[in-house]
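Is NAP placement plausible here? Inputs below.
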Amino acid sequence: MGLLTGKTALITGASAGIGLATAEVFAREGARLILTARRLERLDKLSQMLRNDHNAEILNLRLDVKNKKGVESAIDSLPAEWQNIDILVNNAGLGLGLDHIKDGSPDDWDDMIDTNVKGLLYVTRAVLKLMTPKQNGHIVNLGSIAGIEVYPGGNVYCATKFAVNAITKALRAELLDKNIRVTTIDPGMVETEFSIVRFKGDEQRAKNVYTGIDALTGTDIAETILFCVSRPAHVNINQVVIMPSQQASTAYVHRKQK
Ligand code: NAP
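Reply from A.M.:
I modeled the complex. Tokens:
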């Protein structure tokens, strides 16, 4: 028996980084998984591996969380045996660029706001239609320390994560009498594809972000999510702020010299 045997979890952004690691850890613990992302071919590869390694039961969905109608129809038309969702991990998200606002790209702003804020809302609303009647569930939102403190160039990304924090708090209050727990995980630096996306494929620039730092891994975050969702029913972990040991805030980072 795993910690999540008999539970069904839907994870957004499971094709890379934290979402992918969460899929691995949840599969190891016996969860049935609905894995979603835009890159279906990556999900297919991942689920093949998880079926082989853990005998996991998995449904893959190609889903762009920015697509309001697409999200609604994908969740509304889940096969009956996949509608009983116990855990939603709202992980899909991105940062784009580090420009100051005066030089910023409004298209990138739209993309971040549409994905990190509106996308999270669309998925949450659709899944709550299934979770609320059964009066049981757990929603885990991926915030960030960027949702607690700002940094130059972080502007709009920080604003989206501040919004995630506000949405998380409101949801927790709204769902108190529905027996649905709400948690936010707020990581510092996690080495994933995040910086590659932020710098639009510039791998060297992305690598420099983590130079001299033992950054967190997707698995560190996935194990933290597992801890939160496997507490007894009367326990809700509201918020976890987690950073590498060499990071104290968005501004204070100690880099080892070579
Ligand atoms: P990542 O490696 O780039 O993975 C991001 C995931 O989000 C991918 O699976 C991507 O899948 C998915 N995604 C992006 N846009 C999407 C969309 N429109 N629709 C559906 N899926 C979408 O980054 P990560 O570090 O794992 O980030 C995961 C979450 O953690 C994000 O919310 C991020 O803000 C947060 N976070 C990261 C860090 C960090 O340092 N890495 C720190 C704090 C918080 P597709 O491209 O296949 O759709």
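Short version: The CA atoms of residues 72 and 125 lie 9 Å apart.
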